[in-house]
Write a structure and sequence with these properties.
single chain; 288 residues; alpha+beta; paralog of FGE (formylglycine-generating enzyme); 2 domains; five-stranded antiparallel sheet; four-stranded mixed sheet; 12 strands; 31% helix; 16% strand; globular; binds calcium ion
């Protein structure tokens, strides 16, 4: 009986151990599956982000894919601080494009152009004191770099319509974050928080499409001449055919919040001018 009882005890203990081991295995499998699903979710997002929505080019510049779409360009008559040249009209952007996540930095400018003309020095600060022609030359030289050329990447300044479309990132409000100008300090550098200088790019919150400093820091050259808007809707508009000035967008470190509005237009700068408040970001027209 003792032998039988002893065997039963051993048997029960073994079953108990096996049960515990099985429980552990099941738990581990469940934890593993949960962990794996988390990893897949995170990895999948990162993969999608890197492969489709985001890109980094051969000089380390980050870009985001901006989808094609339609939007209302300009501002409503009720918007505070608006200019009378912001007449609302429908715009279709028919092709997706990549846009620089930040303004072109001094480090990036130096890599491509071999110079840094900026007044406020800092490798991650936006380049400034660049003329419109300097910005266009940067785009041409970047496009001609071997890795970019091989990949079929073509860089240029965004049109004013492309710039506002990207700045709005689906919003219809005065700013990409809403209408309340008192919140601008979370999203950009302007005369209310800049200490009268530029700041390293990307320190503030991005807009809904992951773009930084669309409001403030430095104004940004656009491709267009500074003419009036068309009276009706437009498809992939490229602006006036000629003017004295080129358009700049987004406001900057020295100006009021109102200049930083999504629809705000700067039309007073000669394309030859070089200013410590004015830089640019690039558009990549190939979506390879
Ligand atoms: Ca800016």
């Amino acid at each position: 009986m003792v032998v039988v009882l002893g065997w039963k005890l051993v048997f029960v203990e073994r079953v108990s151990v096996m049960t515990r081991q099985l429980s552990c295995v099941v738990a581990c499998v469940l934890v593993g599956m949960w962990g794996a699903s988390c990893a897949i979710a995170a990895g999948g997002a990162a993969t999608r982000g890197a492969g489709v929505q985001a890109a980094t080019n051969s000089i380390g510049m980050k870009l985001r894919l901006i989808p094609a779409g339609e939007f209302t360009m300009g501002s409503p008559a009720t918007e505070s601080d608006r200019g009378d040249d912001e007449t609302q009209h429908g715009v279709s952007i028919t092709k997706p494009f990549y846009l620089g996540v930040t303004e072109v930095t001094q480090e990036q400018y130096q890599k491509v152009m071999g110079t840094n003309p900026s007044y406020f020095k800092g490798p991650q600060n936006p380049v400034e004191k660049v003329s419109w022609a300097d910005a266009v030359e940067f785009c041409g030289k970047l496009s001609a770099m071997p890795a970019e050329k091989t990949a079929g990447h073509v860089y240029r300044l965004p049109t004013e319509a492309e710039w506002e479309y990207a700045c709005r990132s689906g919003t219809t409000t005065a700013y990409g974050f809403g209408d309340d100008a008192s919140r601008l300090g979370y999203y950009g550098w302007f005369n209310g928080n800049s200490d009268s200088k530029t700041h390293p790019v990307g320190e503030k919150k991005p807009n809904a499409w992951g773009l930084y400093d669309m409001h403030g820091n430095v104004w940004e050259w656009c491709q267009d001449w500074g003419g009036d808007y068309p009276s009706g809707s437009a498809t992939d508009p490229t602006g006036a055919t000629s003017d004295l000035y080129r358009v700049r967008r987004g406001g900057g470190w020295y100006g009021n919040a109102g200049y930083c509005r999504s629809a705000g237009r700067g039309r007073g700068d000669s394309p030859e001018g070089r200013y410590d408040r004015l830089g640019f970001r690039v558009l990549r027209s190939s979506i390879k």
